[in-house]
Specification:
With 339 residues, the chain is α/β, with parallel strands linked by helices. It has 17 helices and 8 strands. The protein has an 8-stranded parallel beta sheet. It is globular, with a radius of gyration of 19 Å. The site of zinc ion (ZN) has 6 residues, from strand 1.
Amino acid sequence: MTGFANAADRAAFIAALPKAELHLHIEGSLEPEMMAALAQRNGVRLAFDSVAAIRAAYEFSNLQDFLDIYYQGMAVLLTEADFHDLTTAYLARAAADNVRHVEIFFDPQGHTARGVAFADVVGGIARALDDARARGISSRLIMCFLRHLSEDDAQATLDQALPHLHLIHGVGLDSSELGHPPDKFARVFARARALGLRLVAHAGEEGPPDYVWQALDVLGVDRIDHGNRALEDAALVQRIVGAGLTLTVCPLSNLKLCVVRDITAHPLRAMLAAGLKATVNSDDPAYFGGYINANFIAVADALDLTRDELLILARNSFTGSFLSAADQAPHLAAIAALG
Ligand code: ADE
Ligand code: ZN
């Protein structure tokens, strides 16, 4: 064990690290207990008759397997209060893990398609983020377009967001990657950029390196979500390193969705060794078995990550965030004090 007396010592170091979480789908933080409670509150019938049965269904062999269940789970989210309560519950978990800043994804098309008002989705999430700000957790909200839907649908969603842009910092691209390359969304991303929004996209989770190239060259993203398959292309790695772009890596997600065959085969150390600015994130923690510290611990134990590597990962989470340099500075100083 490098630099730590034992696994408990390393877990304590991880717990004490100030962290930013940059890849978290708020709908993916819907725990089975809350799903069952909201189903009851809203009179929604679930396909499962107990919390245990919901959890037992969480066995996935690829991204689409997961997405099919994730969209079903969302059906219990109907009111502004539901989105507020969901976000509040995530923020309590984040605070317990010493997360000081969050950049949260939401999937408005998963809700507006069911008749939920866009204003209730964004309003409920933003109200919870406001409460957390008063308790010392800063945040940004990133609206994702569902890539299995058309670009016209994404454009209509951006139209709906216009009255709420004071609450939305950026746009992203998620859902089924294979068969839905980034260039399908070139125009809506260009429009989002012109509106002053920051840009991110899931790329290279299941999709080939070419999708990562497209996210960079066609969409012009500020950050890549996942990016695992970029490692297959040395020129692409050099491009990402040269541009100083951050990858939001999700170890337990990668394990649960069979992006890696085993956590010991996770490429996180290889990413750091290649000079990539990787970060550790939980993606959809209610579905993948752990929040941010659990992700850090799983990958650190499997790869025997050193104190220096963990410090770099924590630092990357702030320097890769959309916080200003001035707002990053106190967090970076707190991390440096642990080094
Ligand atoms: N939506 C929620 N989680 C996702 C993931 N890991 N990849 C793509 N879309 C998602
Ligand atoms: Zn994701």
